[in-house]
């Protein structure tokens, strides 16, 4: 009875068996050769190029196959920001100068729109009209303004001012990068704030604490 979304990303490591096929669809340099980047799971990787429609189609067909073969309801799609672009990237034949490199993120979001309303991305540029979730970046498990609970509502307002209505807050209680539960009061207050926002996600769950929170 649960809806299940799959976490995916727009990178392919150079050592992957399918890299030779995929290399025609990653960001290239001015000579048309694959330009490699580094990310959190690899130092030599291709970054799929959604500014090239044929590459977006190629990538999307494979992701749709995952969805249909395994019955996923949607996707949590990571990255997409321009800071992951490799040095020497070249979009000169596809993006105007005043949309480079940010137009990469626009093309990325518009590609992800194909997967429907349960899709989430964590970046966007000139993509306010795309009806999918735009997620806040990871929040820390703290009370204050150091990326903690105190920043949750201001970040939501900022998204709204910028024209993004389908805001997906980060995990209740913070992102949960360690195994220590957030203090109970912090978790409760975070959940209370989050309940008035478009959707809720948990790193830690109420039953991690006690039956009273369930």
From TrEMBL:
Keywords: Glycosidase, Hydrolase. Coiled coil: none annotated. It holds the Pfam family Glyco_hydro_31_2nd. Gene3D superfamilies: Glycosidases. CDD domains: GH31_NET37. Residues 1-202 form the Glycoside hydrolase family 31 TIM barrel domain. InterPro entries: Alpha-glycosidase_related, GH, Glyco_hydro_31_TIM. The keyword Metal-binding does not apply. SUPFAM superfamilies: (Trans)glycosidases. Belongs to the glycosyl hydrolase 31 family. This is Glycoside hydrolase family 31 TIM barrel domain-containing protein. It comes from Daphnia magna.
